[in-house]
Amino acid sequence: KAGVTQTPRYLIKTRGQQVTLSCSPISGHRSVSWYQQTPGQGLQFLFEYFSETQRNKGNFPGRFSGRQFSNSRSEMNVSTLELGDSALYLCASSSSSTGGAGNTIYFGEGSWLTVV
Amino acid sequence: GQNIDQPTEMTATEGAIVQINCTYQTSGFNGLFWYQQHAGEAPTFLSYNVLDGLEEKGRFSSFLSRSKGYSYLLLKELQMKDSASYLCAVSTRNGQAGTALIFGKGTTLSVSS
After folding, report:
1. Could B48 and A102 be called an inter-chain contact, meaning their C-beta atoms sit closer than 8 Å?
2. pLDDT band at A97, cuts 50/70/90?
3. pLDDT confidence tier of residue B67, bands split at 50, 70 and 90
4. For residue B37, how many other CB atoms are within 10 A of its CB?
5. With an 8 Å Cβ cutoff, are B103 and A42 in contact?
6. Average pLDDT over residues A2-19
7. For the CA atoms of chain A, what is the radius of gyration?
8. Distance from A84 to chain B by nearest Cα, in Å?
9. What pLDDT was estimated at residue A100?
């Protein structure tokens, strides 16, 4: 079956703009989470959604937001972009909100965002 | 606070065995994952441990000791394609049953011939 799909794969934005990234989870998966990966900080958790509800949120400013639709697809938005937002944004899905007990978390290929 | 430590870099030769250690201090422990990530690619799932002990899957094995906050990933019969970053991640859980993976900075493994 198809894996986690993220669009767009690459994008360049200017400081102050906003960006929306999209994620389609594996079919049947209801939990979607987002991560930011940078060379300096590594992979950092942004937020997690399950059945359209945000269940967990990392330590990122309010400029970072997300939502999940009834078909489990998810979007994340970053407003007022800063240079430091340049990163690989990864979406991950799993079949359960608990994330444990063997409910493997699968990652998409990611969206490379460059802010200039 | 949440903290996961693993070595930054390791080197090994083809055919050898390498052990990548990971120590963690987190709240709401709900299992530990190991991922492999090649440069420019997404992390790929390798293993998951939630109970103490060893999990074996082909050339890869992972061990967990919850009381010591310690895990390791063992790679046997190393191949050049195993050159990658290996990420240790702890699944944590908050009161609303939401989950998050807390990642270590990753261990870059270089395999030479």
Report:
1. yes
2. low
3. very high
4. 19
5. yes
6. 96
7. 13
8. 18
9. 52
Tokens of A77: 């938005």
CB contact (8 A) between residue A106 and residue B91 = no
**pLDDT band at B100; cut points 50, 70, 90:** confident
Q: What are phi and psi of B81, to 5 degrees?
A: -70, -10
Question: How many of the other CB atoms lie within 10 Å of CB of A109?
Answer: 17
Residue of B nearest to A43 (CA): B103
Nearest-CA residue of chain B relative to A10?
B40
**Do residues B112 and B11 make contact, with C-beta atoms less than 8 angstroms apart?**
yes
What does residue B43 show for φ and ψ, rounded to 5 degrees? Answer: -60, 140
A54, A55, A107 ranked by CB distance to B42: nearest: A107
Buried b / exposed e along A32-66 (16+ C-beta atoms within 10 A): bbbbbbeeeebbbbbbbbbeeeebbbbebeeebbb
Per-residue confidence (pLDDT) for residue B98, from 0 to 100? 65
Minimal Cβ distance to A98: which of B33, B41, B99: B99
